[in-house]
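Model the whole thing, not chain by chain.
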Amino acid sequence: MPLAAVLLLCVGCVSTATTQKTSTGYKPPSGNYKVIVMRPDIAASVLTAGGQLEQREDWTNQARENVLDALRAQQELRGGQATVTVTSGDDPALRDLNRLHEVVGQSILLHKYNPMAQLPTKKTSFDWTLGKLATDFGKSAGYDYALFLFARDSFSSGGRVALQGIGMLGCIVGVCILPPGGSQQAFASLVDLKSGNVIWFNYNASAMGDIRTPAGAAELVNRLLEPMNTEPKAKKKT
Amino acid sequence: MSGSRRQFLAGAGVCACCLPAFASAKVLDTGIEAVIGPGYEPIDQDERGMWQSLERLEEAIRTSPKRLDAPKFDAYTRGVVERLVQRPVPDLRIYVIHDAAFNAAMFPNGMMVVNTGLAVRIRNEAQFAAVLGHEAGHYFRRHQITQYRSVRRKAAASAFFGTLTAIAGVGLAGSMVDVALLSSMYSFSRTQETEADAFGIKLMARANYSPSAASEVWKQVIEERKASAKLNDKKYKDASKSAFSTHPATDERMVDLKETAAKLAEGGNFSDHRDEWVAITQEHMPKLLEEQINLNDAGASLYIIENLAQDGWTGLLRYGEGEIYRLRAGEGDADKAAAAYATAITLPDAPSEAWRANGYALLKAGKTEEGRASLNKYLELNPGAKDAGMVRYTLTQ
């Protein structure tokens, strides 16, 4: 499929962007501590020719398993006593925490990663919190940190690839219309259950990768979570 | 997945000048049947994905603190659907949610959401069945997946055509086709709404519910919007009259349903089952009315109360009427509120709060003795009331 090969080259031009955000004085968890990894929010979809994302059940199930395996493997490498917990959402303590984080996590994504949506009071600070709900949960369940992960992966349908092909042909005559292909968007956040604060957050967008495969899931989890282990360098104000 | 959400009402205002559309009234095709049976599970990938993508949403709705905690009302609602489709419906999950907006929504995976704002506007079981039958129509006719596939096809056509015409240097042709495709998507949605109306009314007649209840519901909606507009001194028009509306024009739906009902009702023995509706909802009505009244839309709230009062004024409705005026607090409203409270306490089912409100209104008017008597009656009826201390304090003054 020479056409697909050309497209792949083009997609390869798009870089992978990862930027972590941390609260002031962030120190990576160390020593003997317990992390609960909350049920990751995962979906894998087809990108149709017309541009809709159509969730695929089999891909999503596979991706979810892969990400969970990758999370377990990744956390085992850390010295702490990590526990991977998959919740159905019906345990009231976890359910509320999950839902609160859903809102807070999406807010961080919007207001910290979209320059058009910066909040005047949070331009230089990173002080989101899950509050008492998180500290109460930490106390009663005996965890020090909670780790949340969100990932969406999409893949071009045959029709989308054909459409991109036509667009590529247009480039030959000087009218270049290149509809974007499938892509990957993910974020993770670490909540300190002693303070309830979101102390570390990382977002990753990529036109590559495939969380439907174990290797692709491991790659995403590592790329997303690796920066958590290093203390951020003191940044000069720009 | 907002695209899969089917709303009973798109939130449209209605104007009086739209009414001449009556001439186009048509009898709906009530020959359509359900296309899925009990225990339906999707096989196709796109439909399975659609169901899966709703799991988190349903979990959030199922465990939401906004759910009306009313197992009996849940079971009753299920019973009405079962009576309509004439079989058990284990495949439907029904959630009643505290939301004062007039709405109900059917999701493709069998999740049905009913707003409390729907229940508060309903006079009898037949009217409730009209809404549930319509919503069930979307599910049993698999409207969402059909709609999604149609949109997917048209979006693909638009993308290909747009790219090709742009390359050929005739981009304008592409955008004209876009408008045509977009308009056909909405038209498809309106066709489905009409089909759900037809399916619902057919089920109603079969289950011996007065089929005219369906057009009554729309009549109430139109009249309520007019009443609200009038008191707010605003001009309203029916947003569903646009070529880009997902729902057919409200007045046309009302008239089509009325014509169809007239045809279906020939020789039938129908009932509106008002007693059953009242028996199951009366314990919730104080809360539901309060939600509506707190919107402080006096025109709409007064219409709703007066509409319900067509079946007879109750102490609760009169108390609600007083609360509407008290909240609005316009010129002369205090007197209107006082009059409503005074009437409320003469009715057998007046809530204890009516005595309190009546008491304070009387004190304000300088009728100290009567006012104190009314407040004492409130404490007698509701000794553990949260504000009992405050009321006792008033009585010591």
